[in-house]
Amino acid sequence: MIRVGIVGATGYSGVELIRFLAGHPHVQVAHLYSSSAEGESLASVFPHLHAHPLPALAKIDAEQMGAENDVVFLATPAGVSAELSPALLQHGTKVIDLSGDFRLRSGETYQNWYKKKPAGDEWLQQAVYGLSEWNGTEVAAAKLIANPGCYPTATLLGLIPLAKSGWVHSKSWIVDAKSGVSGAGRGVSLGVHYSEINESIHAYKVAGHQHTPEIEQELGRQAGMEQLVQFTPHLVPMTRGILVTAYGQLEKKVSAADVQELYESAYEGKPFVRVRPPGSHPRTKEVYGSNYCDIALHVDERTGRVIVLSVIDNVVKGAAGQAVQNMNLMFGLPETAGLSLVPLFP
Ligand SMILES: NC(=O)C1=CN([C@@H]2O[C@H](COP(=O)(O)OP(=O)(O)OC[C@H]3O[C@@H](n4cnc5c(N)ncnc54)[C@H](OP(=O)(O)O)[C@@H]3O)[C@@H](O)[C@H]2O)C=CC1
Ligand SMILES: CC(=O)N[C@@H](CCC(=O)OP(=O)(O)O)C(=O)O
After folding, report:
1. Where does the record place the catalytic residues (predicted)?
2. ipTM > 0.90?
3. Which of 26, 34, 126, 336 is most buried, most CB within 10 Å of its CB?
4. Paired residues of 104 in beta bridges
5. Which one is catalytic: 27, 42, 150, 236?
């Protein structure tokens, strides 16, 4: 059994990791670590885990963590994994980081967008961007995974085939995204207060969200040329889910059937990306609690635009599920191990 450690298990992505790993056939949740609840049981924080056999929350000590785990998931706020990862990696322990600390190739860009001290260049260069569907070969050989952000996951899976095709003007991308509140984590703040956000919807960080450079970096890398993306996130009063509605200006006459065929071929054999039938309008509810990303394609011949709809569960495909998918590839396990849950409906 692979010995897994989790830092940040008292947070939303961390506890979601436990939901998938507890039933995983090749893994033992060996150690849980906490910066605020050392010595307590996870069930004291999350009563829904009462009577589930899990280790007590232990102190965060990178040397110790490196010695007692084969892989450590870091489900922690920005800045923490840049500090913890080097010691773990030097021990030969694999690291899957759910934060933004290793996603951007340039430390300077990270510092500009996250306002935190970046990880050293040698570690940034080692990190593999864990978008499993597109970087699977590199993920399988990786020691350090930068697990993609939630909005970038839905956006990149939705746009990469078109960006690679060259059919769309590379500077015309407009990405309108909507997220449930769990995307902001478990921390309490006015911005996620029920009476302030219920019955309301608003955009935030317009022209300034930290996922913009991540989307442009990875879309550009996959397409082999620079891409410019106008990204606007919105907060929606629901718990889980992201809907991305993305627009691109077509540079040649392309039919809806051409785009459909492009995507069906790109995602053939990819178990977690479901290209929906032509004309579909996927809902976040249809992927709730699952590792699926559902994509639908539309072409507006009047405006010459292609419109891509992409939905994920932010805590699963946008965080913990994708992290487990990456772990499966890193350890040569079936990609779907532990992840075959059908979405929760209604
Ligand atoms: N929520 C989501 O949908 C997504 C989140 N992410 C990213 O994943 C990471 C975790 O997010 P999420 O689960 O939402 O966050 P939460 O705020 O829900 O949980 C984060 C956890 O990190 C731990 N933590 C806080 N400060 C420190 C510290 N200084 N050192 C060590 N541990 C610390 C806390 O646990 P304790 O007090 O026990 O130490 C806390 O429970 C973030 O970087 C986030 O951006 C990425 C994609 C989607
Ligand atoms: C709804 C909501 O607040 N979502 C968060 C997503 C955070 C996240 O996943 O970002 P990093 O991992 O890149 O820090 C946000 O917009 O900042």
Report:
1. 150
2. yes
3. 34
4. none
5. 150
